UniProtKB/TrEMBL annotation:
<keyword id="KW-0238">DNA-binding</keyword>
<dbReference type="InterPro" id="IPR036388">
    <property type="entry name" value="WH-like_DNA-bd_sf"/>
</dbReference>
<protein>
    <submittedName>
        <fullName>Lrp/AsnC family transcriptional regulator</fullName>
    </submittedName>
</protein>
<dbReference type="InterPro" id="IPR036390">
    <property type="entry name" value="WH_DNA-bd_sf"/>
</dbReference>
<dbReference type="InterPro" id="IPR000485">
    <property type="entry name" value="AsnC-type_HTH_dom"/>
</dbReference>
<dbReference type="Pfam" id="PF01037">
    <property type="entry name" value="AsnC_trans_reg"/>
</dbReference>
<keyword id="KW-0805">Transcription regulation</keyword>
<dbReference type="InterPro" id="IPR011991">
    <property type="entry name" value="ArsR-like_HTH"/>
</dbReference>
<dbReference type="InterPro" id="IPR011008">
    <property type="entry name" value="Dimeric_a/b-barrel"/>
</dbReference>
<keyword id="KW-0804">Transcription</keyword>
<dbReference type="Pfam" id="PF13412">
    <property type="entry name" value="HTH_24"/>
</dbReference>
<dbReference type="InterPro" id="IPR019887">
    <property type="entry name" value="Tscrpt_reg_AsnC/Lrp_C"/>
</dbReference>
<dbReference type="InterPro" id="IPR019888">
    <property type="entry name" value="Tscrpt_reg_AsnC-like"/>
</dbReference>
<feature type="domain" description="HTH asnC-type">
    <location>
        <begin position="2"/>
        <end position="63"/>
    </location>
</feature>
């Protein structure tokens, strides 16, 4: 079970995973050593699973952001997964979902032409409904 201090630690690390333990301790009113000990316990408990880098995908050449509801045509999904493997550099997430569709696919593409090529290959295996991200709102 995590307490309020652990929640604060998680929040601070989520905003800046590169913060020093001394700075983290100051943010959550602990010593650097106490903050480090808590972080280690959160990691060992599997609550903190790792640290990552946030990449601006538009600046690395992937401005087209798409969400695609996938409707499989059969109970065999291997061919769908083969298409995903071919376009793996563009696939960000593939969620198995309930409700509308079987999967929700999140992708980033360098151009509409590359997206179209993906959709042509995809449509040979599944039906889909495409949504293009116009902008992202701040939460």
């Amino acid at each position: 079970m995590i307490d309020d201090t652990d929640k604060k630690i998680i929040k601070v690390l989520s905003e800046n995973g590169r913060i020093s333990m001394k700075q983290l301790g100051e943010e959550v009113h602990l010593t650097g050593q106490a903050a480090s000990t808590r972080v280690l316990k959160l990691e060992e408990a599997g609550i903190i699973e790792g640290y990552s880098v946030k990449v601006n995908e538009q600046r690395v050449g992937l401005p087209v952001h798409a969400f695609i509801n996938i409707y499989t045509k059969s109970l065999q999904h291997q061919h769908y997964f083969q298409v995903l493997d071919i376009y793996k550099p563009y696939v960000r997430n593939n969620f198995k979902i309930s409700g509308e569709g079987c999967y929700l696919l999140e992708c980033r593409f360098p151009s509409n032409e590359e997206l179209d090529s993906f959709l042509v290959d995809l449509s040979k295996q599944v039906s889909y409904k495409l949504s293009i991200v116009v902008s992202q709102t701040k939460s």
